[in-house]
Structures are given as structure tokens and as C-alpha cells.
Automatic annotation (TrEMBL):
Residues 1-21 are annotated as: Disordered. It comes from the Eukaryota. It is a peripheral membrane protein. This is NADH dehydrogenase [ubiquinone] 1 beta subcomplex subunit 10. The keyword Membrane applies. Its main location: mitochondrion. Belongs to the complex I NDUFB10 subunit family. It comes from Circaetus pectoralis. GO terms for cellular component: mitochondrial inner membrane; respiratory chain complex I. Keywords: Electron transport, Membrane, Mitochondrion, Mitochondrion inner membrane, Respiratory chain, Transport. It is found in: Mitochondrion inner membrane.
Length: 175
């Protein structure tokens, strides 16, 4: 290919698009609107949000890990101490909800294991089955037969009766 090109033979076609770099004394209105928006609206909002985030980072509050202090059991309340009765009842309800969630989590783990193992579930999920049996037995021992309207007092009486029956069975076995 020859070094000297014939520029007249290969002319550059004329451009039809206007030049983007206009040189005028009037600023671009879009740039002006963006600048005004950034300084008037965006900058204050960003400043306030960052300030709030800094304040929240100093003292984090995890609402899903709320910890209640343990209150005395119903058996430890004095006679006529209705506030203690109320707190013990609320504590019992929280404990019951926690125990229900524990049973549900163990049941979900067993279901996931059965789903994962398929036909081999009886030998590969034996540990989960045993754990579910233990957890449901403990839940049934504590809260079973209380019904929907069960409360801390009836639960305490149930436990007392169960302990008395166990002592009687021990006394009969030792004789």
C-alpha cells in the first residue's frame, strides 16, 4: 500500500450530528438544575442520614434479641404479691413460647433431614428423631394437658402432682 494517500479520493463524510462541546456564554440548564438539586436537596438529606446512622452505630439496638430479666417463679412469690404473680405469669408465657419454638425448630430439622435423605431417612436421621422425641416428651411433661387456658399456677400444680407421684413410685420400689 502506498505511503502517500490521496485524500481527495477518500474524503471524510460530513458529520450531521452537532458538536456536543458548544462554546457559549450561557450555561447548560440541565447542569445548573443538577447542581442546584445536589446542593439544596441531596446534600442536606445525605448529611442528616449519615448523622443518624452514626448515632445508631454508637448504640445498636437489636429488637429481635430482647432479653428480659428472669423473675421469681410462682412458687417463690409471697402471698398477696399480685405484681409478682403477674410477672411470673408473663415469664411462664415467654418460657412456653420459647419451648414451642424449640419443638418447632427440631421438627423442621427432622423434616429437612427426611427430605434430604429420602429412603435412607430411618438410619441417617436417627439422631434428629431421638432429639425430637426427647424435646416433645419434655414439652408434654411440662405443658401437656393444660389446654388453651393453661397458666403458670396450673402448670406448677401439674408439676407438683407429677413429683408427688414419682416419690410414691420410688417409695414403693424401695420397699
Amino acid at each position: 500500500m502506498p505511503e502517500d494517500r490521496d485524500w481527495e479520493a477518500y474524503k471524510v463524510p460530513p458529520t450531521r450530528t452537532p458538536d456536543s462541546e458548544r462554546i457559549t456564554s450561557v450555561p447548560n440548564p440541565i447542569t445548573l438544575i443538577q447542581t442546584v438539586f445536589n446542593y439544596v436537596i441531596d446534600a442536606p438529606v445525605t448529611f442528616v442520614r449519615e448523622w443518624i446512622e452514626r448515632q445508631q452505630a454508637k448504640n445498636k439496638f437489636y429488637y429481635y434479641h430482647q432479653k428480659f430479666r428472669r423473675v421469681p417463679d410462682l412458687s417463690e412469690c409471697l402471698e398477696g404479691d399480685y405484681l409478682c404473680f403477674y410477672e411470673a405469669e408473663a415469664q411462664w408465657r415467654r418460657d412456653r413460647m420459647v419451648d414451642q419454638e424449640i419443638v418447632e425448630i427440631v421438627r423442621e430439622r427432622l423434616g429437612a433431614c427426611k427430605q434430604r435423605e429420602g429412603p435412607n431417612q430411618f438410619q441417617n436421621c436417627a439422631k434428629e428423631m431421638e432429639q425430637l422425641a426427647q424435646v416433645t416428651k419434655a414439652y408434654q411433661d411440662r405443658y401437656g394437658d393444660l389446654g388453651v387456658h393453661g397458666n403458670a399456677r396450673t402448670c406448677l400444680m401439674k408439676q407438683k402432682h407429677r413429683m408427688m407421684e414419682e416419690r410414691k413410685a420410688q417409695a414403693k420400689a424401695s420397699q
